[in-house]
Write a structure and sequence with these properties.
Blueprint lengths: L32 E8 L4 H4 L4 E6 L12 H4 L5 E2 L2 H15 L4 E4 L5 H14 L5 E5 L5 H7 L5 E5 L5 H8 L4 H16 L12 E7 L5 H15 L5 E4 L19 H14 L4 E3 L5 H4 L22 E3 L1
Parallel strand pairs: 2-4, 4-5, 5-6, 6-7, 7-8, 8-9
Antiparallel strand pairs: 1-2, 1-3, 9-10
Helix pairs in contact: 3-4, 8-9
Bound molecules: iron/sulfur cluster.
Length: 313
């Protein structure tokens, strides 16, 4: 039994729910639930490589942004219960059949005790496979310390610099401060990821998804990252925002405009960031490939290629 679930403080919500009897803010009880296990090509090139990243999409989320592109699993809690042994078998199958370059746990923080056990068992068969934690940035430093020895790569968002926007879209005005602390801890543990490497083994990449109508949030987010971590920080600038659920904020019901993207892109270049992945605005058809449908056995459409996430140096 994982005692932390008795009064859960795994994430910064610290809602102290007894997950053996009820769901936390994340929407999850003490039962491990998973929405998809399989190869995915939508990550940054050194993560996806040629064979894909072995993604494990966990059900639920401690952040729950209103516009979430994975809303079916983060908000609607779509997914199935798996025992640790069953998830290990699924992962072993994906590694064997697809030769994926890593195991990539997506939104795993509310299941950390389970995930540690899964990793220990997977590593018995595949001791060298890198383990990726793909997270929102809204992490508890103590939880990051718990998983330090099991994780090799952090792919983390830095979504909001604006406390009011974070409060409005994700009910977490503390996001900017919490996320900067969490990212500092991740970098302290793993350092910066070498983005020129063909297949990543270790390090941190920071992602920023540009929201339509909120250019200043992005400009300030990039500036904060620069001031905290410097221009060597590996940064992934994402323009893939796609409106899904009807939003109260009218701007979020449309796609990103090219002029919005280029204001932020030029700010990144003006600050001198050196290690950047950039997703230039694409045709709608290609962008929709980043929006999964978890009602399908293959949630990601077949036309997504690693090259859709471009890199510059
Ligand atoms: S992981 Fe879930 S239950 Fe635990 S503190 Fe966060 S929201 Fe609450």
């Amino acid at each position: 039994m994982f005692k932390v679930y008795l009064s859960c403080t795994l994430c910064p919500r610290r809602c102290k729910k007894n997950r053996f009897f009820e769901k936390g803010y994340c929407g999850e009880t003490s039962h491990l639930r998973v929405a998809y296990v399989g190869p995915h090509f939508g990550e940054e090139p050194p993560i996806s490589g040629k064979n894909g990243s072995g993604t494990v999409f966990l059900t639920g989320c401690s952040l729950k942004c209103s516009f979430c592109q994975n809303w079916q699993i983060s908000h609607k809690e779509m997914g199935k219960r798996l025992k640790i042994k069953e998830l290990v078998e699924e992962i072993n199958r994906v590694i064997t059949e697809h030769k994926v370059h890593n195991i990539n746990f997506v939104t795993p923080d509310h299941f950390v005790p389970h995930i540690i056990q899964v990793i220990k068992k997977v590593k018995k068969s595949w001791p060298d496979i890198p383990i990726v934690f793909n997270v929102s940035g809204y992490q508890e430093v103590s939880t990051l310390k718990e998983i330090e020895e099991y994780v090799d790569i952090y792919l983390t968002d830095f979504k909001y610099s604006d406390r009011r926007l974070a409060a409005k879209l994700a009910s977490c005005p503390d996001y900017p401060a919490v996320a900067l602390d969490a990212i500092s801890e991740m970098i302290k543990q793993k350092g910066f990821l070498d983005i020129k490497t063909e297949i990543a083994k270790k390090g941190v990449i920071i992602r920023h998804l540009i929201l339509p109508g909120y250019v200043n949030n992005s400009i300030d987010a990039i500036s904060m990252l620069y001031l905290e971590f410097g221009k060597e920080l590996p940064l992934s600038l994402m323009s893939q925002y796609t409106p899904i659920l009807q939003q109260k904020e009218p701007n979020l019901n449309r796609s990103l405009r090219k002029e919005e993207f280029f204001k932020i892109y030029h700010h990144v270049l003006d600050l001198g960031f050196k290690n950047i992945f950039v997703q230039f605005p694409e045709e709608n058809e290609k962008k929709s490939a980043f929006v999964p449908d978890f009602t399908s056995p293959q949630p990601f459409k077949g036309n997504l290629k690693t090259e859709d996430v471009q890199s510059i140096f």
